[in-house]
Amino acid sequence: MQSKPVYVVDGARSPFLKARNKPGPFSASDLAVQTGQQLILRQPFAATDINEVIIGCAAPAPNETNIARIIALRLGCGHNVPAYTVMRNCASGMQALDNAIMSIRSGRHNLVLAGGTEAMSRAPILISQQYLNWLTHFNESKSVLEKLKLVFRLRPSFLRPEPALLKGLTDPVVGLSMGQTAENLAHMFNIKRSHMDAFAARSHVLAKRAHERHIFDNELIPITDAKGRLYNYDDGIRSDSTPGNLAKLKAVFDKPWGNITAGNSSQVTDGAALLILASEEAVNKYKLQPLGKIIDTQWAALDPAIMGLGPVMASSPILIRQNLGLNNIDIWEINEAFAAQVLSCLEAWNNEEWCQTNLGHSAFGELDIDSLNVDGGAIAIGHPVGASGARIVLHCLNTLKDRSLKTGMATICIGGGQGGAMLLEASGA
């Protein structure tokens, strides 16, 4: 669509580490810095040669305000390299890439480090509004007697903590959790529980196989914590996530009759994914060998109550203007927020009435499942919100290269009712 090419030179990610009801060993900036250090070390240029750093992060810690700047400085980019943070919920990492594309195409910069990071396990715990009101009144009380009266009004329920993560994963406009929006889609397209569990099991099988075959070796950077422990594996992958075992799990979001469970949903995860984007000038200057190019980008919006159809809304305009069908794309990466959500996207593309009503286009047909998330997805690997959009772009390009294929699509649904998509082309294909 645009004449000036933007190349993805290289990229890397941390292992994606499942949250286990306590703060994880790494802050969001730690994850990005350890990943970025190794990524930059394998380049023919220095950190100070990078023109700009753009990082997506949905919920940086209070001491990581403008986390992109913190990461840039810790990576040794120097005081003179500008950095800023972007936030588009689940697509924050993809938004960072899009901003880098615009920066390069405008001629402002030639070499940009972009991606995303998230430490979801470190989401803060909030105090209740009742307790906050009580504390305010207590501090405003002038006498010991007034304070004593307030002590007797304090209730144990006031002290119940409120996880910020749960608030963040609930849409404030429609009042639904992300899981409830997936339940809406399952009902809309009649997605059966057994189908969801089978898709979730597939994700684990493919991700486990990819690790065993060292598919992720060229993108996954081992990291170490403060105690010297090594993390070199996506630890949410489970070999016992079979359809039979997944069928035993109870509904989480629409009890007791719902179908969305912890097993057929993406995992709460910590992780980072970073990419280096470059102009043609930078590619020639440093004699770089890019993974590929980002050909086209699209953002779309829809009803927050069915936010999971965002990939259809974002990818379809790209297909139309590039004159491509679903199966003209060699590799699809659709972020697996929920099994029902991905399966509903496939159903929507194949539904004539839905496509005509919502896209003004005839049905796109049936997507070849063998081209979709070929090494598993967020159900097995995890979904650190700020990083996932960058991860799927990186892995899509790596898959195209490994399989000597040409064209890929990375697409993601976004809480709040949006979708993002990027059309990718492998170098030398």
Secondary-structure map:
Blueprint: E1 7-13, E2 17-18, H1 28-41, E3 52-56, H2 67-74, E4 83-86, H3 92-105, E5 111-119, E6 125-126, H4 129-140, H5 144-153, E7 162-163, H6 164-168, E8 170-171, E9 176-177, H7 178-188, H8 193-212, E10 223-224, E11 230-231, H9 243-246, E12 269-278, H10 280-286, E13 292-301, H11 310-321, E14 331-334, H12 339-349, H13 352-359, H14 378-381, H15 385-402, E15 407-414, E16 418-426
Parallel strand pairs: 3-4, 3-5, 14-15
Antiparallel strand pairs: 1-12, 1-13, 2-12, 5-12, 6-7, 8-9, 10-11, 13-16, 15-16
- What's the level 1 CATH class of the domain at 176-215 and 294-426? Alpha Beta
N-to-C terminal Cα separation, in Å?
Answer: 19 Å
The second-level CATH architecture of the domain at 176-215 and 294-426 is 3-Layer(aba) Sandwich
Please, what is the CATH homologous superfamily of the domain at 176-215 and 294-426? Thiolase/Chalcone synthase
Cα-atom radius of gyration: 22 Å
Average of per-residue pLDDT values: 95
Number of DSSP strand runs: 16
Number of helices: 15
Q: What percentage of residues falls in helices of 4 or more residues?
A: 25-40%
Structural class, from helix and strand content?
alpha+beta
* CATH topology grouping of the domain at 176-215 and 294-426: Peroxisomal Thiolase, Chain A, domain 1
Main beta sheet: strand number and arrangement? 10 strands, mixed
Q: Flag low-confidence runs.
A: none
Tell the overall outline: globular
Q: How much β-strand is present in the residues? A: 15-25%
Oligomer: single chain
Structure write-up:
With 429 residues, the chain is of the alpha+beta class. Among the domains are: 129-163, no CATH class; 176-215 and 294-426, 3-Layer(aba) Sandwich (Peroxisomal Thiolase, Chain A, domain 1), CATH 3.40.47.10. Helix content is 37%, strand content 19%.
